[in-house]
Design brief:
By secondary structure, this protein is of the alpha+beta class. The protein is built from four helices and nine strands. Helix 2 crosses helix 4. 17% of the residues are buried.
Length: 198
């Protein structure tokens, strides 16, 4: 009986890391378009605000087609590049054992008018990893996005568009304008008690 319990425990200890690694390596898919009940110009301005707040610099804007693209956002150089890239994308299977030097991604946002005050927003992220050959040649390789950046951007956009009070309207005590308190008489005259004159 003790041997059976020991065998079960050993098997579970051996298999649990494999199951955990398998569940981590499953790539998820980027989210689809999100529909907002808000006017196009409000959605458009909020998109540019969110991109700026996320530290992304806008490279091209075409309001007529509803297209915004950012400059490549580069991050982590060195040995941590692969793990950081792995948080937002899946590497091509051909390059599984490659040492990655840098990571970067470009965000593309497409905003469309559905009707009247309804707008549709689609976010696409194109992540890439920089690999170096044995000859010293660098090459950017496309990775498949797992949707984490897209979800983060759409989440921030949703919070800004759906919050009942705009962040700019919510001022603290010291940011409010000074209000003077009306006083009926600034310098009241002091009156002395009346004395009887002899």
């Amino acid at each position: 009986m003790l041997k059976v319990k020991t065998a079960v425990v050993l098997i579970s200890l051996v298999l649990s890391p494999a199951v955990a690694l398998r569940s981590q390596s499953k790539p998820s898919t980027p989210p689809g378009p999100v529909k907002y009940i808000s006017r196009f110009n409000v959605v458009w301005n909020t998109i540019t605000t969110v991109l700026t707040e996320m530290g992304l610099k806008i490279e091209s804007v075409d309001r007529g087609s509803g297209h915004i693209a950012t400059k490549p956002y580069e991050f982590i150089t060195g040995s941590l590049s692969a793990s950081e890239l792995g948080k937002l994308a899946a590497p091509p299977e051909v390059y599984n054992n490659v040492g990655w030097i840098k990571g970067r991604y470009v965000v593309e946002v497409i905003a469309e008018i559905v009707q009247g005050n309804e707008s549709m927003v689609t976010v696409r992220v194109s992540p890439q990893g920089l690999k170096r050959d044995l000859s010293g040649k660098d090459e950017w390789v496309d990775w498949r996005s797992n949707g984490s950046i897209e979800r983060r951007l759409l989440g921030r956009l949703s919070v800004k568009l759906l919050s009942p009070v705009k962040a700019d309207d919510k001022k603290g005590f010291w940011d409010q304008p000074v209000q003077s308190i009306p006083r009926p008489n600034e310098n009241p005259k002091l009156s002395s008690p009346q004395r009887d004159k002899p």
